[in-house]
Amino acid sequence: MIVQPNFDLPVYTKKFFRHLKRKNYSPETINGYEKDLKKFTAFMYDLYDGYILTEEINKDDILEYLDFLRDQTYKPNSIARYFSSVRSLYKYLVIELDFKTNPTLGITTRNVYVPLPEILDPDEMKLILSTAKELSELHYALLNLIYYTGSRITAARTLLKQNIDLKNNKIYFPRIKGGRDLYLPLHPTLHELLSDYMLKTRNNGSDYLFPSPKFINKPISAADVRVNLKKIVKQCNITKRVTPHVIRHCTATHLTLLGVDQKYIASVLGHTDFRSTARYQHLNVEDLRPAMEKLT
């Protein structure tokens, strides 16, 4: 979109994206903000024919944008995400660039419950991991790492070899969601697997644990991981939808069923708010039965 004196929103969104990059947000997260705010920018441009400054946008404009999204039959969870991006932009403008008002204050969107995806049982998970070995050592190691650490795909695929401390049995994620870092112990199975994998790949010329098959000095792409995971799932004759993020949910679910405290699961997943893992609590409902039966 062309930037003109009477329409400066694209200038401020670009500053916001640079701010996110400095804060070590993942490329995927920044790309999501870019897509969401591109729609908001286009709407405001059309609404005022390109004659409104960012500081002049008010609460009614934001509400009209939300009405526009509803009229376009977007689902409530999509509308909530679009609004969240706009709210984050204005929070940045107020805190970092001294804007006087935040037009998103006081606006709420419908809370939407997002159900957990259909989870693989432990046997299905083992089948996928063993089948991955037939595809390649890289995908076998990567999928095991995601499962045994509960990590997100970006954190896993961009790991450097130096992030694996086999001697002290630890793994270091320098950047997880929100720009934070995370240390986790290595599961015995993962320790043995990575020891073998790193020995075989020690002279491959890449600093990345999981390099791209095309560019040795770049990490494997998320698309490559998803495409090959789909092949593995098909080979296993599993009809459930399986993605790297579903495997992360499997980690949390399996730990819950094994009786692990939710605060520890939150730490493994890199959540700072324990409420993020509260959705797994229903899996342990039987643990609550003795207490509930005390009622008369």
Name the features.
296 residues, mainly alpha, DNA polymerase, domain 1, hpI Integrase, Chain A, three-stranded antiparallel sheet, 12 helices, 3 strands, DNA_brk_join_enz, DNA integration, Integrase/recombinase XerD, Integrase_SAM-like_N, DNA recombination
Protein architecture, described:
It contains 12 helices and 3 strands, in the order H-H-H-H-H-H-H-E-E-E-H-H-H-H-H. It is mainly alpha-helical and 296 residues long. It folds into 2 domains: 89 residues, DNA polymerase, domain 1 (Orthogonal Bundle), CATH 1.10.150; 164 residues, Intergrase catalytic core (hpI Integrase, Chain A), CATH 1.10.443.10. The chain has a 3-stranded antiparallel sheet with strand order 1-2-3, with no helix packed on it. Helix 6 runs antiparallel to helix 8. The chain starts with 8 loop residues before the first helix and ends with a helix. The mean pLDDT is 86.
